[in-house]
Amino acid sequence: MNDDDRCPCLSGDTYGACCARYHRGLPDGVHAPTAEALMRSRYSAFAVGDAAYLWETWHPATRPGELDLDDDAIVWRRLDILRTEKGGPFDDTGVVEFEARYRSGDERGLLHEISDFTREAGRWYYVSGK
């Protein structure tokens, strides 16, 4: 994905001005300031195939030993944030409910999740989803 392309998270910004800065900032650089920003950047990481970012932003207590995004058939098309609870720059926990639409071949799908996030040492992490 080029920096001038529209960001997959549909923020309205370009990829370079939006999620790419978080994708490129890890492990020691720029981090998402809110749980929602982390959710958007993780969705974009799925869309661009950035498994390293997804793994780094997954809380160490719940993340898998490795993460493989080998399904090139899935194309992520749209992210809708339905609600957030807490997750601001001064909170330590947050919840983001979202729907993510995708295509796989001729089929269309919808992922609906309520995700839990935690902030440790000023950095947000994805914990789990229902």
From TrEMBL:
Coiled coil: none annotated. This is UPF0225 protein GCM10009751_09910. Belongs to the UPF0225 family. Residues 34-129 form the YchJ-like middle NTF2-like domain. HAMAP family: UPF0225. It comes from Myceligenerans crystallogenes. SUPFAM superfamilies: NTF2-like (SSF54427).
